[in-house]
Amino acid sequence: MNAERELDAPHSTPEQLGKSAKALLARLEPLHASLTPKERLAIPVQEMPSQDPISRRHNMDEVALGYTPEQARVEAMRCLRCKSAPCVKGCPVRIRIPDFVASTAEGNFADAIKIIRENSLLPAVCGRVCPQEIQCQKECTVGKSLKSVDKAVMIGRLERFVADWERENGLQKPPLVKPETGKKVAVVGSGPAGITCAADVRREGHAVTIFEAFHKTGGVMVYGIPEFRLPKRIVENEIGILESMGVTITTDFVVGRTRSLADLMQKDGFHAVFVGSGAGLPKFMNIEGENLVGVFSANEYLTRSNLMRAYDAENADTPIMRARKVAVLGGGNVAMDAARTAVRLGAQEVHLVYRRTEAEMPARVEEVRHAKEEGVIFHILQNAKRLIGDASGHVTAIECLRYELGDPDESGRRRPVEIPGSEFVMPVDAVIVAIGNESNPLISHTTPGLITNRHGNIVTDETGKTSIEGVYAGGDIVLGSATVILAMGQGRRAAAAINQRLAC
Amino acid sequence: MARIMEKKQLSGEVFMIRVHAPLIAQERKAGQFVILQVEPIFGERIPLTIADADPAAGTITLVFQTVGKTTHALAELNEGQDIPHLCGPLGRPTHIEKFGLVVCVGGGIGVAPLHPIAKALKHAGNRLSVIMGARSANLLIFEKEMSALADEIIVCTDDGSRGRKALVTEPLKELCVRPQKPDLVVAIGPPIMMKFCSETTRPFGIPTVVSLNTIMIDGTGMCGGCRVTVGGRTKFVCVDGPEFDGHQVDFDNMMKRLAAYRNHENTAHEKCHLEKELRALRETGAEKT
Ligand SMILES: Cc1cc2nc3c(=O)[nH]c(=O)nc-3n(C[C@H](O)[C@H](O)[C@H](O)COP(=O)(O)OP(=O)(O)OC[C@H]3O[C@@H](n4cnc5c(N)ncnc54)[C@H](O)[C@@H]3O)c2cc1C
Ligand code: SF4
Ligand code: FES
């Protein structure tokens, strides 16, 4: 696998990468318009400049540093401008990818970002956290011709580049807001679904209030995804734009507790409500020892570190356990984030335990690679059977069981089957459980008439409409644990339905 | 943001504040709590049970003991100043109905969260026996308020400086062996007290409700940091509680989890947490109540 190869390759410094791109661009620029597909396929993939794996183990700063302008242009020149634009079909929000990539190749970054903004509200975020290898880049002809998705045009990196370029040059303009209509819309939750819905509804001139339970806005983007992957200032910048559009943000407000959804509509005069309250309750395994001291949900571990800033032990009041030997259970982005956070908090060994194989890991390929580069030790086809503690109630070890892959299950992935008698003990002093979330029942329990499915997710039609008139929902509370871009897409779709409803 | 309208020092370390929070005042029910943060960026989020509310004035009353950095910082704030973040009401309200004879046991500042529950139980037509205890007389709070509600009140202190020199479990046992057995016991105080109250009532089969005061972060069910084992199952105190059947709660596990940040600290800052939590455990009250 390419990831393996890159692992062995020495780390190229950002300066080296920038320099070789500069030289390459000087050669390609005069030929750009006339390059043949074959010549384009020969242009090397531009590697993402990143912090050195050794030094980044000790800081929370962003790992991926972003392309230089020259790298972005060279990478964009790899695009073949396919007529059928298969990448667009792979993008959940249908960004006009070939067009923005072409503008990027020409160095017209202003046009590029304008094209992206037609469809995406949060490009600086999506460019960083979208699982492009299973979306736009998966469909890319260049990748297909070179027989590896790792060689597709790096659409996400280009998206990030132009979004950063716009922000860093102070060119971001808040979208125009139409004259006030006198109608009021409440948005529950300030994650990507809520932010997007709020912006789109506000644009039509409706008054919008976001209600957020936490003291800070941004949802998972601020409490879950760590600084080293998505700097908080990027999210803060997006929130700032919402505020400049005149969206009211009320933090420390739990809808269903501080005020019921019904009261918001009947007593406070909101004409429509969008629920984007996210996934919520962390799952545990229901195995022996899971409430021992030193066992955390990834949500708790990451919230302490990110939202409460426990990584900054000098300043933060919220403590976080500094364990020596940490096991993380799970194979998604959340598991990678927890493992990489543990590395940064000074763990000597971080073990990632996953029931299936690396091919089935839901985490983004880049996260898996970064985790390995940072020294996270992968244990595949293994799972915790019980957690063992000492007399003080502290976890000291995991009893694991080995697995093998059996027949495919409903999801098409081969089902892991336990190997009887394969138990073994792994000594640890902390365990982080990252096996997913259940939906938070707070709103559905306090809102009679709001229909949910058997997983507790709010049921909507294709426009985001729920079983209650005027109430819409989207994001993880509807999809289960999904992605930023899907949450954003749902926020946008619901906003369109709300705008239509309020227009008449 | 919530303004402090009134502040009173109830004893050396115990404070009462009345805070302007109209929505919470209106919505809250007995048994619920708030989460607050005094320092907006680096501060921690701590839960405090709502001791009383005045919906007309739009205020809620909180009672706390200065045991940690946040409660100390809160005690520094004066009338007219704002608490930067206050969120609630959280948790499930107490189940109130007419049970018959109810014994309310409050330990230390656990009497503060017990007060609104006792009030609601009284309104529902229950007969109330109140047992309140503290280490010594100066740490007894809400005695007057509780006396006003109770049909019978028993005060005890560890050092005998007021009322009986006894732990609350002693009079509790006496009430359990009376011919008219209590129909319900509600015990709120330090974990160890709630544990022994539950052990006291268990042989008599008297339903016993306790209000747990675990460490919390979000208070909305998102982190699982507040989880406890109840009847062999994992429960989240902030959304499934804070009240549980005392006979089902694994108090030993809960107390170990409460002490989690005491054992493996190595940096200077964490040592500060160590001292604060050790102190918290030595005192009668815990942060929540
Ligand atoms: C650690 C981690 C890493 C991830 N990595 C990636 C990644 O790399 N790429 C990717 O695409 N996706 C990733 N995801 C998933 C992605 O973050 C989510 O799918 C997305 O954030 C969902 O957006 P949302 O708007 O539905 O909800 P959220 O982002 O969860 O926001 C919901 C907000 O609503 C608030 N809220 C909840 N209930 C209430 C209430 N009753 N009243 C008021 N406010 C309320 C919450 O406090 C929260 O702020 C990751 C998730 C986690 C946890
Ligand atoms: S939003 Fe995500 S899927 Fe769409 S083009 Fe950008 S990176 Fe690809
Ligand atoms: S405090 Fe986070 S789940 Fe209860």
Q: What is the H level of CATH, i.e. the homologous superfamily of the domain at 101-211 in chain B?
A: Nucleotide-binding domain of ferredoxin-NADP reductase (FNR) module
Looking at the overall shape, the CATH architecture of the largest domain in chain A is: 3-Layer(bba) Sandwich
What is the CATH class of the domain at 101-211 in chain B? Alpha Beta
- CATH level-4 homologous superfamily of the largest domain in chain A: FAD/NAD(P)-binding domain
Distance between the termini of chain A: 55 Å
The helix/strand class of chain A is: alpha/beta
What is the 3D shape of chain A? Answer: globular
Mean pLDDT of chain B: 89
- Shape label of chain B: globular
- Low-pLDDT residue intervals, each spanning 5 or more residues of chain A: 1-6
Biggest beta-sheet profile of chain B: 7 strands, antiparallel
Could you tell me the radius of gyration of chain B in angstroms? 18 Å
How large, in whole angstroms, is the Cα Rg of chain A? 23 Å
Sheet with most strands: strand arrangement of chain B: 6-1-2-5-4-3-7
Q: What proportion of the residues of chain B is helical, as a percent range?
A: 25-40%
Structural category of chain B: alpha/beta
Largest sheet of chain A: 5 strands, parallel
Portion of residues in beta strands of chain A equals 5-15%
Q: Give the termini distance of chain B in whole angstroms.
A: 21 Å
CATH architecture annotation name of the domain at 101-211 in chain B: 3-Layer(aba) Sandwich
Q: What does this protein structure show overall?
A:
The complex is a heterodimer of chains A (504) and B (289). Chain A is an alpha/beta fold. Chain A has 3 domains: 31-168, Alpha-helical ferredoxin (Fumarate Reductase Iron-sulfur Protein, Chain B, domain 2, Orthogonal Bundle); 184-279 and 439-503, FAD/NAD(P)-binding domain; 282-437, 3-Layer(bba) Sandwich (FAD/NAD(P)-binding domain). Chain A is 38% helix and 14% strand. Chain A is built from 22 helices and 14 strands. A 5-stranded parallel beta sheet of chain A has the order 3-2-1-4-14. Chain A has a 5-stranded parallel beta sheet with strand order 5-13-6-7-8. In chain A, strands 9, 10, 11 and 12 form a 4-stranded antiparallel beta sheet that branches. In chain A, strand 1, helix 13 (192-203) and strand 2 (207-211) form a beta-alpha-beta unit. In chain A, helix 2 crosses helix 5 and helix 5 packs across helix 7. Chain A is globular, with a radius of gyration of 23 Å. In chain B, 28% of the residues lie in helices and 30% in strands. A 7-stranded antiparallel beta sheet of chain B has the order 6-1-2-5-4-3-7. By secondary structure, chain B is α/β, with parallel strands linked by helices. In chain B, helix 5 runs parallel beside helix 6 (191-201). Among the domains of chain B are: 2-90, Elongation Factor Tu (Ef-tu), domain 3 (Beta Barrel); 101-211, Rossmann fold, CATH 3.40.50.80. The longest helix of chain B is centred in the last third of the chain and has 15 residues, at 268-282. Chain B contains 9 helices and 16 strands. At the A-B interface, helix 17 of A face helix 1, strand 7, strand 14, helix 8 and helix 9 of B. The complex binds flavin-adenine dinucleotide (FAD), iron/sulfur cluster and FE2/S2 (inorganic) cluster (FES). Residues 91, 93, 95, 97, 120, 126, 130, 132, 135-136, 155-156, 159, 485 of chain A line the site of iron/sulfur cluster.
